[in-house]
Amino acid sequence: MIPLVTGRPRTRSIGWALAMLLVASACGSGDSEFEVILDGLNEPRGLWVLADGALCAAEAGRLAEGQVVKEGPTSNLAETGSVTCVDTGGVRRRIIEQLPYVFYNVHGATIGPADVAEMGGELYLLTGEGQVPLARSLLRITEPATPPEVVADFLAFAIQTTEPDFFDEINIISNPFAMIPDDANDRFLVTDGATGHVLAAGLDGEIDVFSDVAGHEVLTGIARGPDGLVYVTSFSQLPHPTGGGAVLRLHPDGSFAVAADQLTTPIDLAFDTAGRLYVIEFIDGSDTGSPYQGKTGRLLRLEPEGDGWTGGRVLVERIPFPTALLIDGEDRIYISVHGAFSAPNSGLVLRFDDLVATTSTGPPIVFTEPSP
Known about the structure:
Blueprint: E1 22-25, E2 32-41, E3 44-49, E4 55-59, E5 75-86, E6 92-104, E7 110-111, E8 113-119, E9 122-127, E10 137-141, E11 149-153, H1 154-161, E12 176-182, E13 187-192, E14 197-202, E15 207-212, E16 219-224, E17 230-234, E18 245-250, E19 256-263, E20 266-271, E21 277-281, E22 297-305, E23 308-319, E24 324-327, E25 333-337, E26 347-352, E27 365-366
């Protein structure tokens, strides 16, 4: 077992001792302080606060040093994905490295380690699309610097459950993106960004379809709501038109309903202790064929109304490619920044301590890149 992991998750004050990385951002309506909890990351994706208060981030990776990008519409592989954790004393380390990373020439998208979470005192990692060992898998990290254990193989599940097409060929699509533990059933619930399925991956390796959200195939974030139900973000299809995304509520029988709509590229979601919904939008929308060039995202808060959430107040804007959102038991907000389409070592994890308590209707905070 990894020394950082000491039991089931609990809520408490993190109390990070990272004075060297404290940044004050005087923007928008009033001053807002945030801490840079982690910097120098390579496309950080999913986040998790461990039972001992440490924060862990899954890093998709980067091209290897000196790696020459192949010409044409192809993929470039590297083994640079990792998981980085920082404890409550500010000590950080990459607890596992050399995980699969893919860079696609055509659209510049990158795929690698996608999410991280804890269950039963052990740390688990989700990896995205790829054709190499450890890709498209739920992994258990047992000891630092040792190969992870494959718990569930999503690629094998896709192969087994995909019907041949008219030409008797099997077109395998599967791209696990985010997960949450379902402790009561010894499994993780996983969004598949390629199929529109939320999958149930048991610790015994068994995989089943928990929900098929037809018409909302590009699934990203996942969280458990104040009502105990599971919620996911539907990112929208290219070219990601403004207002084309949604938050979906999943029922135990696998059926679903739209809980919030008119969102633009929602990539992750979380709830505060008052039951309000927070959504990270990856970009500000585009109707062109190249929607990611120079785009920025934002953080929204929606208020409960009836059986859904409405309002969409912008709390923070101009966030460069945010990919993950987490709210701890003290209502502190964590955001992964530069999680895609970004330079090596530019990734950050920020923590905002006072945004949940913000009730004014003034202008949003405009994110300012911290100085090196």
